[in-house]
Amino acid sequence: MKTKAAVAWKAGQPLTIETVDLEGPKFGEVLVEIKATGICHTDYYTLSGADPEGLFPAILGHEGAGVVVDVGPGVTGLKKGDHVIPLYTAECRQCKFCLSRKTNLCQAVRATQGKGLMPDSSSRFSIDGQPILHYMGTSTFSNYTVVPEIALAKIRSDAPFDKVCYIGCGVTTGLGAVLFTAKVEAGANVAVFGLGGIGLNVIQGAKMVGADKIIGVDINPERQEMARKFGMTHFINPKEVDNVVDAIVQITDGGADYSFECIGNTQVMRQALECTHKGWGQSIIIGVAEAGAEISTRPFQLVTGREWKGSAFGGARGRTDVPKIVDWYMEGKINIDDLITHHLKLEDINKGFDLMKSGESIRSVVVY
Ligand code: NAD
Ligand code: DAO
Ligand code: ZN
């Protein structure tokens, strides 16, 4: 079949809208009509050329929601008409990683996904016979895409696509880092560095579990109003204080119980660790730093009880946890609507990257 898609031909170049050939689903795969997709910082990171694993030409996009149109042989858990969210972190429930119960980093399709291919090592997308690569196993910047069954969360059919697509990355990454990775408890003091599409969801998660002080740190003062709406109790603009770490230690009487780095800046990662409480502070790295970057601190920070952790997709097991998060949204337990600041047509997708870079948008969503 043919599908309309935004194609990334080369790093650093705008996406172009193309009519792409799409092969039907093979064994264990599902054809999905994408109804809406968010534009995440990570799509920009890959498009910019900063991602060493970025491959071209490719169809980017990993924050979508849509409807099953067809299933390949061997698919047993999904059928035509089911509503789904594609998962860049699959959940096979059979690999060593899934069975460990210690991580959400399922490895079942990791090797081929990292090469921009489906599990049989080929691409379903092409233009005039030239293969176009998949991206993160999802390629939601295409109106139709093929995804392995184990990388699709089945969701309720009354959830609006243009809102719940954000659960495919940003919402789950932020909420999950609080709930699944850090397991923040009621009454804890939390510091959140970076109040963008991820950090605001960390704030919403911290409020949800009953955190006491929720301190937001951002160089963009315009993020303050939205962050307060989501539960932030204190705001620090690093440009307005002598020392961010000292400021947080003062507000929290010794340091935050948990901190979250939601920027991808290694200097800030150090601050995020060092502002946590001696003896038990945990700092969770969510931001993706530039290729080759390294983090550092004095080892005594760890000797004296602070812990550094990372979180991918919020530690969520996609097929299990994503449908629950959709329910939370539908039950009014979490706010997604206010974070979606712009709706765009696929033809205007490059504007979504501009809005992100200028700091004007929290999330732009493309509606097909
Ligand atoms: P964003 O651009 O929407 O937000 C980043 C925020 O950080 C902005 O508000 C910006 O003003 C602020 N900021 C920038 N430099 C700062 C500094 N030095 N001090 C304080 N604030 C600063 O980005 P986002 O979509 O929220 O993504 C954040 C990071 O998370 C990115 O690196 C992204 O690639 C990563 N990410 C990680 C995962 C994961 O699973 N670990 C998932 C999605 C995104
Ligand atoms: O299993 O080796 C692996 C990698 C899994 C991918 C996790 C990606 C998390 C961070 C990237 C941001 C995604 C939007
Ligand atoms: Zn697995």
Architecture overview:
The chain has two domains: 2-168 and 336-367, Alpha-Beta Complex (Quinone Oxidoreductase, Chain A, domain 1); 171-312, NAD(P)-binding Rossmann-like Domain (Rossmann fold), CATH 3.40.50. It has twelve helices and 17 strands. The model has no long low-confidence stretch (mean pLDDT 98). It has helices at residues 41-48, 96-100, 110-114, 161-164, 170-182, 199-208, 223-230, 244-251, 266-274, 300-303, 318-330, 349-357; strands at 2-7, 16-22, 29-39, 64-71, 83-86, 125-127, 130-132, 144-148, 152-155, 190-193, 214-217, 234-236, 258-261, 282-285, 307-310, 340-344, 363-367. It is an alpha/beta fold and 368 residues long. Strands 3, 4, 5, 8, 9, 16 and 17 form a seven-stranded mixed beta sheet that branches. Strands 12-11-10-13-14-15 form a six-stranded parallel beta sheet, with helices on both faces. The chain has a four-stranded antiparallel beta sheet with strand order 1-2-6-7, with no helix packed on it. It binds nicotinamide-adenine-dinucleotide (NAD), lauric acid and zinc ion (ZN). Residues 40, 42, 62, 89, 105, 110, 169, 288, 312-313 line the site of lauric acid (DAO).
